[in-house]
Amino acid sequence: MIGVQVAQELRDAGLVWKPGPGDRFAIPDRDLDEDVFVLSNMTIEVYSLPEGRVIGFNGTTEWALDDVELDEALWLPREDQLRELLGGTLRALRRTDRGWDVDITLLGEDSTFTALTPEEAYAAALLHLLAAATT
């Protein structure tokens, strides 16, 4: 799983979250940085209210958190979601003695991104794509 810092870099680079069941997220800056939440149709759902979209915590008795605004939550994309976001640019994922390599091709240029986990390597490649989309 990618960490909060990498997820923040992805969001800052322009990655937009379209929440769906099974999505993981954190709530930084509320002393909940280390906690990971999962959207579920039973306990944690996204609601559209007149003031905007919120994430509602249904039946949560452990702490006083009824809902948070969607922009306060930080999406922690899973490996499959990161891979899907790379789309047709993705060429390969390989295990190496350094960790994992992700190869992409963007506009005819091949690039490789290395990290300790597949998720981190996919995230590095996605950050490269997002940066290219804004230039």
UniProtKB/TrEMBL annotation:
Stated name of the protein: Pilus assembly protein CpaE
Species of the source: Actinoplanes nipponensis
